[in-house]
Amino acid sequence: MARCPSAGMGIALGLLSAGITAYQVILMQILSYLQWYHFAYMVVSLALLGFGASGTVLALFRQRLTAGGETLIANLMTGSGIAMALAAGIAQLDIFRFDLYLLFVEWPQIFKLAVSCLLYFIPFFLGALAIGLILTGWAERAGTLYFANLVGSGAGGLIGLVMLSIAMPGQLPALAALLPVVGGFLASAGKHQKSSMLFTFGAVGLCMALVVWPATLVPSQFKAVSLALNLPDARVVQEHASVHGFVQVVSSKSLRQAPGLSLNYRGPLPRRRAFFVNGDPYGGIPMPHEGKYPPTYAYSTEFLGYVMVEPRRVLLLGAADVPSILHAFSRGTQRVTAVEPHGEIAALLRQWAGGEPSLFPPGDALEIVNADPRARLAVEKGPFDLIRFPTVGAFGGNVGLYALNEKFLMTREAFLGAWQKLAPNGVISITSWMDYPVKNPLKVLATLAEMLEAAGVSDPSAHLAAVRSWGAVTFAVKKSVIGPDETASIRDRCRELSFDPLILPGLADAERQEFNEMDDDQFFRHVDAMLPADRQRLYADYDFNLEPATDNRPYFSQYLRWTRLRSYFELYGPRKLPFLELGSFMIAATFVLLTLFVVLLIIIPLYRLGWHGPGKWRTLIYFGGLGLGFMLLEIVLMQRLTLFLGHPVRAAATVIAALLAFSGLGSLASSKLPARPGVIRRLTGCIALLIVAYAVATTLFLKGGGTLSFPLKAILAALFIAPLGFCLGMPFPLGLRLLNEQQPKHLPWAWGINGCFSVIGPVLAILVAVQAGFPIVFLLASIAYLIALAAHLPKR
Amino acid sequence: MRHLACLCILFLSGNFLPGEDFERQRLRMVKTQIESRDVGDKATLAALSQVPRHDFVPPDLIKYAYADRPLPIGYGQTISQPYIVAYMTEQLRLGPQFRALEIGTGSGYQAAVLAQIVEKVYTIEIISELAGEALERLKGPAYDNVSVKHADGFFGWEEAAPFDAIIVTAAAEFIPPPLINQLKDGGRMIIPVGSPYGLQYLVLVTKNGDKVKTRRLIPVRFVPFTRRKR
After folding, report:
1. Contact call for residues A461 and A530 (beta carbons, < 8 A)
2. Cα dist. B41→A639, B34, B36, B145 in Å?
């Protein structure tokens, strides 16, 4: 290759990097829509192994690939774009279309899964091969080129998010593909090779055509939106692109809404327009029945909060539940603040509320706020008479699909925050569907009990009430002691609706199953064990994790205890085992698969490089440590800053953009530093210490950002990330330059190792965060940089 | 080694022995999957022994027809695991003079089982394609006491009400009030809760005068979730 890359190569590298990151972002959403989030995570993680594989191929065929020069690099970029544009469409062909649920029934699904992974792997592999050729081909200019790579990747994250908010899922791959295709054009500019230019123009034409006539993406037949569309007259009446997930509004004469309805209700049931986000149910809007909204909302266990307090001011966290709004106003509430995190859904709710002014008192009685509920809770002044948390669990069971989603609203600290916003007689209310085995209601109760203890309440049982229907439990905690009048009202209403009191001062055992019997009394014994001090024993004995989520481990729906696997196996059998918590099993399976592939991809080049010889361990642990440490940090910073920035998507955008941009600047600055082991040692050591400092400093961000606007918060977060990001950008290019001087043959291998560990990093971060909490992820990142430091310790 | 290979083949074929006729498989299914899990109602066991389940599964899945699992039948729907069908049927305490209503015909298998036990079965399917297929399968003298309707199960079958038993095979997050109305005094209704591929529990609804009561059942009693004594 030429001594210096052509002028357009840096920009082309940036565009390619941007395209790859944008494609990664949009692929997550497309696959979440077609299947489920954790499946998307698995497929994208496996596809990202293209980075590791590119290093392996480069190490094996470096001479031949290098001979292709800049033309080959340009063609690889264009090829990556074409593969991006086509992969999703080809994977949707009948012969290749995969369905996660059918994986456990039809063996051909394994083949289809493998084809899907391969199709999504190709664009990453081709793109990473081009980046690898550039970085290893001009390693002496690694600082500048890595700068372009990092800044491009950071911009790609933002571009991906913008694309999600403007384009429909079918159009997204082709839009992202334009970036590497244009990159390919710039990389080939000046070469005037007719075939290469034709290839590029053909690719542009293909992408444009696929934007105008996108592939039809059909979600799994088992997804809620598919089931809804099977109903008579069902049709999609609205579709909205959104960074928070693709929104569909479905209308059908058979879609109705009355969750947990009392069996004593005999009136009409309202039809509804159902919302689906990425194909999953997300509430909806009831339609009036003969000009009125039937009061079904008053016939659920949600009545509990309203008989314990006069609800003048109500805060609804998660407002997609329109019946809750109607319920509050039917009880004479003067002001309802409904907080909805999804922007498009909030807009649909406002649109509905605007069309129904007669339902609410005049003025600003109903405020629908688009914000993260936990962040909003932090800035609300209160006091509120009633704070309603969103319903936990799903009626049909979600087979643990959301086990690994961070839920900052469901942590002990969040409930304590709500407690502090209550009026003197105020009530917190939360409903949970009964599940099997019982987990959700018990964890809700554990969280409330611990919250009351943390609030200094000496007798939590005097403040707690719960009622149970045939399928759900509603809990309510009152700031003041629950009085005999309230107890009597709760009992009366329970009898009217065929519900049973579950927790109530002075409750007799016989009252608990008057209308809704359980198979045995274990559930009641577990409920009783939650309130006194022997709760810890129940935590230890129960086969599932019932300990409340915290801000350091905000995984409310994570119940699996890996130490009880044998017990699960005996109780449920191997076939149902994955469905105890599909999310956790998918992530664990992803980690195991990735590890196997990574070992292979790292070992294979040794057949060419030789098993013995100096510097191999050094290369492995240095570039492995850097890849792992960087990604662990990126993930944990996103998770840590979510509360401060108010939404996971905002946190992801800010952290990716700031971290990569400042790392890029660090990479650029590293060009001025000598590539010497001593410099690298000092730098990685400083980074390891800095990470520990950041682990402590990020706790400041858990308090939320008060009333600051998002742009200001984003600037503050970026400034906070800047010093760490700047330092993180230096070790990789310095390492490449040093390696170029000492072991130039190892360069492609180093690139592959870094790519492999960068893919393992995010999966490991989630596994560790779920089991041990965010501080341990920081610690692991610090250790990863110390391992990188160890690679350059002087030999004795 | 040979034994290991045989075991692998058995596992991969979903407990299906190649060459074994369907009747033998069916009887084995009743013995190993149902009787062994404490379903003892003779009428239920006889019905499951008679109904050719393989006629109710998609052709490409016939080899799994008698396997201990639910199977997909298209449109995101499933034919329930044989044990769940048996358990739900037993819990309804059916008699020969009963009129039973099924909401969610699906493949028609549950209706076929009910038809062996009760006088008349009414079954409603909301997805027209499934209703059409079930209608075809349930033709013939063995099922002449079954009526299939393509309609919204929410409204039940007013003209044929009241029913001694109602079985809801695909439940919603509420129990439709018309179904409660159409349940005879002293009647029983059963609905499953949970993912068909995951862990389900059943809710039994009984009506005595104006009083409607429920009982949460755990069909997977053979593997009860109990806290071990320590």
Report:
1. no
2. 54, 10, 12, 21
Question: How many Cβ atoms sit within 10 Å of the Cβ of residue B222?
Answer: 14
In this prediction, residue B18 has a pLDDT band, given cuts at 50, 70 and 90, of very low
Cα B92-B95-B100 angle, rounded to 5 deg: 60
Nearest CA in chain B to A270: B176
What single-letter amino acid sits at A312? Answer: R
* Catalytic site residue from B80, B107, B147, B195: B80
| Total residue length of chain B | 230
Token couple for A622: 């240095």
Structure tokens belonging to residue B154: 């929410």
Tokens of A678: 């001593």
**What is the average pLDDT across A70-93?**
94
Could you tell me the two tokens for A546?
């019932």
Tell me if A516 and B198 make a contact (CB, 8 A cut-off): no
> Degrees (nearest 5) of the Cα angle A242, A248, A254?
160
A chain contacts of residue B69, beta-carbon cutoff 8 Å? 105, 575
> Whole-prediction pTM value?
0.89
Of B152, B171, B180, the CB nearest to A254: B152
Neighbours of A414 (CB within 10 A): 26
DSSP class of residue A596 equals: H
Q: Which residues contact A212 (CB under 8 A, 6 or more apart)?
A: none
Chain B residue with Cα closest to A264:
B212
Contact with chain A for residue B222, Cβ under 8 A: no
Q: Is B212 on the interface with A (CB under 8 A)?
A: yes
| DSSP classification of residue A392 | B
Which phi and psi angles does A415 have, rounded to 5°?
A: -65, -35
Taking CB atoms and an 8 Å limit, are A260 and B76 in contact across chains?
no
**Residues of chain B with C-beta less than 8 angstroms from the C-beta of A228:** none
Q: Are A421 and A462 in contact (CB under 8 A)?
A: no
Q: Which residues of A344-353 are buried (b: 16+ CB within 10 A; e: fewer)?
A: bbbbbbbebb
Q: Cis peptide before A548, with omega less than 30 degrees from 0? A: no
Query: Residue B228 and residue A258: Cβ atoms within 8 Å?
Result: no
Reply yes or no on whether the pLDDT at B7 is more than 60: no
Report the C-alpha gap between B167 and B189 in whole angstroms: 6
B80 is catalytic: yes
- Among the listed residues A548, A544, A584, A577, the one whose alpha carbon sits nearest the alpha carbon of residue A561: A544
pLDDT band with cut points at 50, 70 and 90 for residue A107: confident
Task: Please judge whether B126 and A254 are an interchain contact, meaning their C-beta atoms are less than 8 angstroms apart.
Answer: yes
B159 Cβ neighbours under 8 A, 6+ residues apart: none
Q: Which residues pair with B146 in a beta bridge?
A: B121
CA distances from B131 to A113, B53, B89 (A): 32, 17, 21
Whole-angstrom distance, CA of residue A15 vs CA of residue A12: 5
Pairing of strands A313-317, A384-388: parallel
Confidence at residue A614, expressed as pLDDT on a 0 to 100 scale:
77
Cα B137 to chain centroid, rounded? 16
Q: Is the pLDDT of residue B103 over 90?
A: yes
How much is the pLDDT for A2?
Answer: 57
What residue spans of A391-430 are helical by DSSP H? 412-420
Query: Do A428 and A452 contact (CB within 8 A), yes or no?
Result: no
What is the average pLDDT across A111-116? Answer: 91
pLDDT score, position A677: 93
Question: Which of A580, A434, A110, A259 is closest to B197 using CA atoms?
Answer: A580
Q: Which helix (H) or strand (E) holds B203?
A: strand B201-208
As a dihedral over the C-alpha atoms of residue A526, residue A532, residue A536, residue A540, rounded to 10 degrees, the angle is: -20
If 0-12 CB within 10 Å is exposed, 13-18 middle and 19+ buried, where does residue B144 land?
A: exposed
The model's pLDDT over A339-382, given as tens digits with 9 standing for 90+, comes to 998 989 999 999 999 888 888 888 889 999 988 888 889 888 88
Q: Taking CB atoms and an 8 Å limit, are B177 and A102 in contact across chains?
A: no
